[in-house]
Amino acid sequence: MTTPESAPDQPAQPTPPQPGGSQPAGGWGEPPRYGQYAPGYDPAAPPAPEQSQHGTPPGVPAAGQYGQSQYGQYAPFSPQVPGYRPPADKPGIVPLRPLTLGELYDGAFGAVRHNPGVTLGLTAIVVVGAVVLGTLISIPLTTLFTDLFASVFTQLEVDPATEDLGFTQDLLGVTYGSALGTGLLLTLATPLAMGIMAISVSDSVIGRKVSVSDAWRRAAKRWWFLIGFSLLSFVAVLVAYALAIAIVAGLFAVDTTLGVIGIFVVLIALVVGGVWAVTRVALIPPALAVEGGGFWATCQRAWKLTRGTFWRVLGIYLLTSIILSVIGQIVAVPVGIVMGVAMTAANDVGVAVSLGLTYIITGGMSVLFLGGVMALLYIDTRMRREGLDVQLQAAAAAAADK
After folding, report:
1. What domain of life does the native source organism fall in (predicted)?
2. Sign of the CA dihedral with 7 first, then 10, 12, and 18 last
3. Could you list the residue range(s) of the whole structural domain that residue 276 is in?
């Protein structure tokens, strides 16, 4: 049996327990590896109370024993409870690590509380301004379309079965008038409001509160990118529907049965393709608002972010949309009653105002909640795939020093 002084130079290895509990004197050897016992540790019996070469008094564990870390060395691994997560920095509305669903939703509300001047004030000005201006435009358009459909239905009323079409012509007039007036302006304003929300959320994540003027300036610089993406999405939808109609019409020209089958196949393809496309482009709007790159480069980056996270993005987007839809239906009930009364009284102004209120409610909720969730989901996906949390921690530290 050799002593540490006479042993040849070689890597220190754990020494098996000796009979009677006597062990070689403890030295500054290699720390125990995970899953191995330290030198001098006998799992069946406690170590004997004997003096070590370094003068450790009896009853005190010698350096290098299992469960003790030596100076300049790491302590042994301590397993945690399953599901345990080490604490993460939280300089802002969410912790800087991959987020759970609850943290995404809580962060969306936290963004509103953290900076209400931008999330509530500025976005409301954009949405309400677009709706008010659109309502003023839609009132004469509603009257124009109502008269147009009335002239068409007048020729159809020779048939007694069409005597009740007066309500239908009013409904069509309101639909087309509000779509061209309020709907069009809201389509142009919503990307700007979404961009403002994404900018505010991205700053709130690191604990920084962006000012109203700064948020407007940064969002206005990216507004054309956001509108361009919305217009491209609209064109893509039109092309998809036109292609579907052409396919169904061609199948009907060949055979009626084949055309009927084609309707179901095309509808399924539209639904599946629409869900896939919406999910893949879901992170593009917040990326366009927050990042400073070019249009196509940013779109490509955001498109690639959903690879490997497709089902997570889809599930969160669908769940959030369903929640908004349910809330919107509940809120829209009293507005719908007012609109019905206005239509019965043939009051175009009342109908336009009622629709405007509906647009404000649904558009405001969409910007605040859906915009906040998607902005946080974009940041969460980048933390998972690109390690953005490290950059955010550095940015938070820099913001705290100012």
Report:
1. Bacteria
2. negative
3. 101-401
